[in-house]
Write a structure and sequence with these properties.
There is one protein chain. The chain has 304 residues and is of the alpha/beta class. The chain has a single domain (22-299), classed as 3-Layer(aba) Sandwich (Rossmann fold), CATH 3.40.50. Helices cover 45% and strands 13% of the residues. The protein has 11 helices and 9 strands. The protein has helices at residues 24-53, 57-66, 72-84, 100-107, 119-134, 176-182, 202-214, 237-246, 250-254, 261-271, 286-299, and strands at 90-93, 112-115, 143-146, 159-163, 166-167, 187-190, 194-198, 218-223, 228-232. It has a 7-stranded mixed beta sheet, sandwiched between helices. It has a two-stranded parallel ribbon with strand order 5-7. Helix 1 crosses helix 2. It is globular and about 45 Å long.
Amino acid sequence: MVRCRQSECKLTESISTSAASIGPLHAAQLVRKVDAALVELHGRRLSEFGTDGSGLFSHYAALVRGGAILRIDEIQAFKLVREALPLYAGYAVLRAGLGELAFLINGAGLPVTACEPNAARVEALKAGLGQLVTSKMVDGKIFTIAPGFLPDRVDVRPLLGVATDFVFDLPLEQDQAFCRGLRQFDGLLINPRLFIRLREQPSEQRALTAFLQSLGFAEARKFPIEQMVYFARPPGDQDQASKALATISVDATSQGSTMDSEFDAMVERVMALVPPAPSPGTGTTWIERRVRKFDLRSTFGNDE
């Protein structure tokens, strides 16, 4: 079992350091079974509903036709969660897609929330969940689907956010509601090159680190081979974060007034292009507005 060195665990000493209790052989079997089940299911859905109607769009449609949905970065992230990181009470996979990584984490017996902002993808995710629950590969009682960028509420602490590809090219760092949402997490496992926007340059990735530090996270461990970095809150900071989140009113989190003027203007310009039928919903919360924008990109084939 791989564990972080003493110097690397100081930031997470308040969290249990027991890895998920699943052996390598079982983990490999889980990967194969989940992948095969999703390929079979979404192959049928692709034939029935088409590339866009199935929620696969060009990216997942190509993977399904190629016979494998799970990618190496997702399998590596699953291994890090299972072997290298402290055990968290809950996990949230950001931009979960078809739910493949979330299904692996749940299959290891861990509570997970799959966050996905695209409405068509959410339907595909639900179909996958139903199939895997029926096949007894995952536990539906500890699996939650959140139709948005981030969970809208946190029921268990500590909570780890996992993101292998979270590129949206939206100014989310300037959005106060999004920042509040990130502060819900006690730890983050992310690919800094693919978080919020594509960050090819080291200076861009350092800027991301500075942004996360401004939210109370500190870099706890790097995984160069997997191209991922683990961020965690310092010991004792979890209680402070919980108290801070508890002071935020429901109205403050549900209104769009906290969005900066630049993003508001961009949303209005984009939504002016929405065709009259079929049109996305008329949501006004920060999550709904972004889902509408993301759905629009998907409509025109630019989701990936």
